[in-house]
Amino acid sequence: APRILSGMQPTSDSLHLGNYLGALVNWVKLQDEFDAYYFVADLHALTVPTDPAVLRDRTRKTAAQFIAGGVDPERSALFCQSHVTEHAELGWVMNCLTGFGEASRMTQFKDKTAKGQNANVGLFTYPMLMAADILMYDAAYVPVGEDQRQHLEITRDLAERFNTRFGEGGLVVPEPYIVKGSAKIQDLQDPTSKMSKTGSSPKGLIDLMQDPAKIAKNIRSAVTDTEAEVRYDVENKPGVSNLLVIHSVLSGTRIEELERAFAGRGYGDLKKEVADVVVDALTPFQKRMAELLDDPAELDRILASGADRARVVAQATMARVRDLVGLVPAA
Ligand code: ATP
Ligand code: MG
Fold it and tell me: What binding partners and quaternary form does the record give (predicted)?
């Protein structure tokens, strides 16, 4: 089967609904069709200054959430990025292929620094490490959300550049894998921005691990607009549209159908129903999480065996890359 690869950063104790609907549910579906590699991007998370104990805890929690969401570590390689040290090495090679101006045009860096996130050089070179993550596994496809499209573009450019400079067949140029009907979820308090682990305020998030009463409360206080009509219109009604998307994806009801069902009813009704739909979806997930976190040794074993699988591919790629770029073999 063709190989796919995707990852998430352990930048929070909990993934949010955007991570879940925009990525995790797709990962689960794709593992039937593809040779899937899923990883916790702990090296990427170092771009956000974090207490070491907290980072360690979040890394395990993130891996557990992949499993609770349905990633099957028997079928898919589930691992920590830092366990496969080749990622950092290939990341360096990618840095050396990237123009400074090219890196400066990456919008994630601009968005995050504009929001006041402490900018270190690691955040600046994030797309090059991400390119390394992907190219390491000869991934044919990369399932990513809309917010990562630009990073996938630079990954493709870098792979092509590498092949032009060092020889065809060096690196596989990956295609984005946009899952049909895949949702982008917006911040509840700032519905023109995407929901983000590091960018959203606590009230802007629907965290997968949060207690149901808090989830309902956040949804009840979601920003809407001054009209009273439940209608999908991203331009003029981003808040209401976001709630409709959340409902639609989780309940499997088409948006037009929801508009009809909520005709003549207020935003309060919509919010209440969205909260119910979200809480119903998350109840089994939270139950599974509690079991997984109860057995951290088992979780570490799963991650170790996933890293063993990933390392086999990564070492082969790095041997090829080292040779092609002209590094002298160690022995
Ligand atoms: P951070 O703020 O630390 O960047 P994040 O919320 O953007 O966190 P990532 O770990 O960067 O999450 O991304 C993990 C996956 O979730 C990626 O595939 C990304 O496309 C997807 N994703 C992130 N936010 C959303 C969102 N709001 N809607 C849909 N998908 C999303
Ligand atoms: Mg992100």
Answer: Homodimer.
23 lines ligand 1 (CB under 6 A): yes
Per-residue exposure over 69-96, b if at least 16 CB sit within 10 Å of its own CB, e if not: bebebeebbbbbbbbbebbeebbebbbe
CA distances from 91 to 6, 266, 278 (A): 16, 51, 38
26 CB within 6 A, ligand 1? no
Nearest of 144, 3, 5 to residue 84 by alpha carbon: 5
ipTM greater than 0.85 = yes
Cα–Cα nearest to 119, from 53, 192, 198? 198
Query: What's the CA gap between 129 and 131, in Å, rounded?
Result: 5
Does 218 sit in the ligand 1 pocket, CB within 6 Å? no
What would the pLDDT profile of 194-206 be if each residue is shown by its tens digit? 999 988 999 999 9
- As to burial, measured by CB atoms within 10 angstroms (0-12 exposed, 13-18 middle, 19+ buried), residue 236 is exposed
In tens, the pLDDT along 270-309 reads 999 999 999 999 999 999 999 999 999 999 999 999 999 9
Indicate whether residue 197 lines ligand 1 (CB < 6 A).
yes
Tell how far the Cα of 226 is from the centroid of ligand 2, in angstroms: 30
- Ligand 1 pocket: which of 141, 178, 196 to mutate (most atoms within 8 A of CB): 196
Q: Consult the annotation and say whether 10 binds a ligand.
A: yes
Angle at 191 (CA atoms; ends 117, 121), nearest 5 degrees: 20
- Ligand positioned closest to the Cα atom of 12: 1
Helices (H), 125-266: 126-135, 149-166, 212-220, 238-251, 255-261
Please tell me whether the overall predicted TM-score, pTM, comes out greater than 0.80 for this model. yes
Please tell me whether residue 97 adopts helix, strand or coil conformation: coil
> Residue 13's beta-bridge partner residues?
none
